[in-house]
Please model this.
Amino acid sequence: MTSVLLSVTDLCAGYGPIRALRGLTFQVAERETVAIVGANGAGKTTLMRALSGIIPLSDGEASFLGRNIRGTSSHHLARAGMLHVPEGRGTLQTMSVEDNLRLAWEIRPTAVTFGEALEKAYGRFPRLRERRAQAAGNLSGGEQQMLAVARALVNRPRLLLLDEPSMGLSPRMTGEVFLSLAELRDDGVAILLVEQNVRRALQLAQRALVLSHGVFAASGPSDELSRDPAIVASYLGQSHDAPPDNKRHIANDPRR
Amino acid sequence: MLVGLLINGLVSGALYALVAVGFTLVIGVLDKLNFAHPEVLMIGGFVAVVASGLPPYYAFIAAFATGGLLGLVVEFAAFRRFTDADAKITAGLASMAVGLVLTDLTQKVFGTESVSLPIGGGWLSRRFQIAGVEFLNVQIVIVLATAILTGGLHVLLQRTRVGRQIRAVAESPVSASLLGVNVLRVSQAVFFVSSALAAEAGLLLALRSGAASSDIGLTFGLKALAIMAIGGLGDLRGAMLGGLVIGVLEAFMFHLGLGRLSELTVWLAMIVTLMVRPRGLFSSGTHGLEQRA
Model:
């Protein structure tokens, strides 16, 4: 029997009088990967921000490892093992690659030493080793996303909240990032993923929830959802992964 | 003669720099202007008075601790509650009020006249010569102390866990807290360090002039504010360099017989610098904490 990491009941949240989220209920268990998919503006980012305590819940309850999210500040949630990689990746641009990783390790020192954790992260992303002394702001978008994932590798969160990891990346880089996310998942890190690239998200996650206008429109195991005609029509009709030829040049990132 | 002037200027400049670095640290990390900062400098001078019977390093430790604790008080009284973007002005005013309270309390205890230090005639005011240039021991002490304190700040920011957290908050409080950084603790650390540096500067200033006075905040301390603006808001290099340059400029202006007018040096320099470079000499304009100290 697996224990519940994140439990959300009738969650409502939004900015000011606008209720972007209207009564969401779901759970994420240990070692589970859950995707929340939906169109732009469906409230996906708002949900992530509410879960990690950046914006307050206007109604409902949410708890992480038994801690009520309402009364817990962001940094306490992070120290308890909830690592939120926000949209735009949240890497610290003026700090070096290695300082970014060290910061993530120091906040939540795991059994392994920083050196070992660092070796593991660099082993997975050799490009980061090459750029270890550079400011994160000088990395390409793909490298920054690698850094965000590498940070999760050294931080070893109980639950990784990922907001649009594919944003701004070439299809090839997206593939690489999702590959490393799959490794994290197979290592036993629970992942709650918000993603516009529905095909990728369904491939990674065991289970998905479809968010539409602030409520869940559908939910179920990923393989079922990816066969659901309504889902296929709304979200999988146009593949994000097989770009038409006129987009090919994006894949040829000059830094690669 | 010229070398002597230069040394005098650099010694003043080092003290300006110490205060300006503290000002700029709070701006660079927290984007807040602490008007109580000059009064913490002033209190540092009275630490010299109180600790005058003790071995000098006690006075240095006492000034560091007193300044740091006052920094925590200022953070709590004037800044903690005002976190909204539009509450910055309120926070600035509150810190000014705290500063005025500090001045009044000091005057209540020590009077409004400046209090001379009994150690004025001791080891610190002895002279020695190197290659025909005359130095005072106190000048060496000031330069060394400034180098140690700013060097220590550099190491703190670049090499320690707290320093990494401070730099993270300087860049983005939200990103930092998502990584588990307690922004309030970082904020307190920044106020502690910044104010401790100001109090040390006050102590050194009192040792140099042989007296502590309660109006030093408004004269010497406010100049550091202008120096920070010259260097660029939030830029540690700018504050250091600005302090040294202004110190030397002022010494030469004084030497040219401009007397009280030389007090205007820093203000004129600020106006001219900001007319040419509105963001100061170094700042990127984001109030970001620049890396070198």
